[in-house]
Design brief:
alpha/beta; Purple Acid Phosphatase, chain A, domain 2; seven-stranded mixed beta sheet; six-stranded mixed beta sheet; 7 helices; 27% helix; globular; Metallophosphoesterase family protein; Metallo-depent_PP-like; PAP14/16/28/29
């Protein structure tokens, strides 16, 4: 009996250690780290129109074998929220790749709050999403990417809840909500902490959320910027600017911002040396879409402020392969 208990405990410890190692994000031995961004799946429960989204996830993950999967919101689009969301989480976790998420404006509309959805996501062993308490929204957190040959932080990934609709409609402000001041302050404080730990030099960083910043429109409309990709609609950003982009510039760490929300946009544009990029709409025709679905691939190099990125379509073809900042200098 003692031998059985010892063996069981040993196996449990090995399994726990394996999961911890699996979910530790690290550059590989060649100094590379790959992220696949899926956005706006808009999955409807038992609706065959959603099948192409799952096909896209399958084809992309099998071809790219990334180090991290990121979902940037509007994951589910119908009740029952519990079954629908669990189905998506189960499908992604079967690939045994760490995955993170940021919520969109529609996820909480299907019968469960974002906090309840996040709790479900965290039940799955490869989920690395979390939440900082006492901040506006759900799913504000950071992920650290360690060095390929050491355990030092080499890159920071920020995930921010871009919230839902404007809370100031009675004051005449419509449209979408903005990222709130407490969230901006949390980012600034966290960024400064990492910079201090790094001897005063900002660590390279990326930010992921759902609704684009107002700067997306400014950048896309400016004739002096370099833009790659599809822009078929104006960015549906908040009407008010809460200053997150300015804070990013002041901290000097963020290299790129990656969002979703606007289904007919997948472009990337340089705005004051920060790459503002969309993912490619991943879902099927459960919502409006006028371009083939796919995913954005983001490749990072340890110790360098470079973003190599491209769009992979469900059929396997590659579009818009660029390297930031080299290809974005006008």
């Amino acid at each position: 009996m003692k031998n059985f208990l010892f063996t069981a405990i040993l196996l449990l410890c090995v399994a726990m250690g394996s999961n911890a190692q699996t979910n530790t994000l690290k550059f590989n031995k060649d100094g590379k780290f790959k992220i696949v961004q899926f956005t706006d799946l808009h999955i409807k429960w038992q609706d065959t129109r959603s099948d192409i989204a799952f096909t896209c996830i399958k084809n992309t993950l099998e071809a790219e074998k990334p180090d991290l999967v990121v979902l940037t919101g509007d994951i589910i689009y119908s009740a029952p929220a519990d079954k629908n969301f669990r189905h998506v989480m189960e499908f992604i976790s079967q690939y045994k790749i760490p995955f993170a998420l940021a919520f969109g404006n529609h996820d909480r509309e299907q019968g469960l709050s974002n906090a309840e959805l996040l709790k479900i996501a965290r039940e799955f062993p490869y989920c690395v999403a979390s939440d900082v308490e006492n901040l506006t929204g759900d799913g504000n957190y950071t992920l650290e990417v360690k060095g390929g040959n050491d355990d030092k932080n080499k890159m920071i990934l920020y995930f921010i809840d871009s919230n839902r609709g404007s809370l100031l409609e009675e004051q005449g402000v419509g449209g979408y909500d903005y990222i709130h001041l407490d969230q901006v302050n949390w980012y600034v404080k966290t960024s400064r902490t990492y910079t201090k730990q790094n001897g005063g030099t900002p660590l390279p960083a990326l930010a992921f959320f759902h609704i684009p910043l107002p700067e997306y429109n400014l950048a896309a409309q400016n004739e002096n910027t370099t833009l790659y990709g599809i822009r078929r609609e104006k960015a549906c950003s908040p009407e008010l600017n809460s200053g997150l982009f300015a804070a990013m510039k002041e901290q000097g760490d963020i290299m790129g911002v990656f969002v979703g929300h606007d289904h007919d946009n997948d472009y990337a544009v340089n705005w004051y040396n920060i790459l503002l990029a969309y993912g490619r709409f991943t879902g099927g025709p459960t919502e409006y879409i006028h371009i083939p679905n796919g995913a954005r691939v983001i490749e990072l190099t340890e110790g360098k402020r470079i973003i190599d990125t491209y769009i992979r379509l469900t059929n396997g073809s590659i579009e818009q392969r660029t390297s930031f900042p080299a290809d974005y200098v006008k």
